[in-house]
Design goal:
- The chain is mainly α and 343 residues long.
- The chain has helices at 5-10, 40-48, 52-56, 78-104, 135-157, 172-183, 195-207, 211-221, 252-265, 279-316, and strands spanning 114-119, 125-131, 164-166, 226-228, 326-332, 335-340.
- The relative contact order is 0.11.
Length: 343
Amino acid sequence: LVEGEDRLTKSVFIEYAPTGKVLSSRFANTVICSDKRLTYEQAYAFLFEDDLEEIQSRPDPPAHQTGSTGRSLKELRRKELKKIQGTIRKLWDLASRVRKHRVMKGSLELDMPETKIYVDKAGYADTIVKVEQDESHQLIEEFMLAANEAVARSLNEKNLPAIHRVHDEPDPDKLDEFSEYLDTFGIKTGNLDDRRNLNKVLKEVKKHPQAHTLRVSFLRSLKQACYRASADGHYGLAKKHYTHFTSPIRRYSDLVVHRIFARNLVRGGARFNKKRYTASELATVAQHLSLTEQNSTEAERESVKIKLLEFFERELQKPKRSKFAAVIMDVRNHGMFVELTDS
C-alpha cells in the first residue's frame, strides 16, 4: 500500500477488487463487514491513548442521537480492543502520509470547525459542541478523497460519460481583495497564486482570534464547487480527476456514478445496471444536482439556525445563566458585534 502513490490510490478498491483484477459479477452483492462502529471521539482515543481502560471509558452516544453502534466498548475483550487499536493506527499512518503528499501537491487545507447540535429525547436542542477536524476526521477524509479520485480517473481513462465534482480557479481580483482584507488584520500574504504560500497564509489565519470570520471571507473569495459532465478539475483539492462516489446513501450524484462505474467497469455489470447514460443526459443531471445541492445546503443552515435559537431561548429561561466565550468582531457607535466561539 505504501510503495508508491500510483499504487496507493488504486489500492483503495480492495473491497471491490480483492485480487487487483476486474470485479466479477459474483461480487456484485458484497457488503462491508464492520468489526466495530466507533464515534470520532472513540477513534481519536484509540489513536493517541495507550491505556485500554481509558479508551473504554469513552461514552457511547445516546440511542436517540445515533444509529446502532453495536456492542459497547466496555463489552469488548482486551484482545479485541488491541486489534482495533492496531488497525486504526496503521490506517492513520497511511492516511497521514497521503494527507502530507496531498498538501505538498497544492491541496488547500480548508477544514472548518463544525457546530454540532445535540438534542434531548424530546427533540429540543440540548448541547452545542464545536467539532474540530482532528486526526480521526482526517483519517476518514483521506480515504474518501482517494476513492473519489481513483474512480474519477478510472472513468476518465475509459472515456466514459460521468458526473464530476468541479471547483474552478478563483477570480484573481477576488484573491487580491482577500489579500487587502487580511492586510487590515496585520497579516501579510504575498502571492496568493502560489499554493504553498496560500497554505502558509491559511495556517496563520487559523491561529488568529478572528479566524472563523477570516476563513469564511476566504471561502467567499473562491468559486462554488458544482457538478458537471466534464472533468474540469478541482482547485481546492488540486486534483485533475475528481468525482463524488463515496456517499450514495445521501447524495444522488454518487448513486449515478456508482451506476456508471458498475455498468462499465465491472464484468457483467450491464446485467445489474441497465441504464446507459449519455453525455447530454449527464450534463442536464449535473446542472440539476448543482441547484438542488444549493437548496439543501441552505435548508441545512436554516435548520441549524433554528436549533441554535431554540437552544439560547431555553438558556434565557434557566434560573442560572450560562457563560459563553466570545470574540468581539466589530465595534460601531451603537454597540458591538460578538461571535460565540463554540457556536
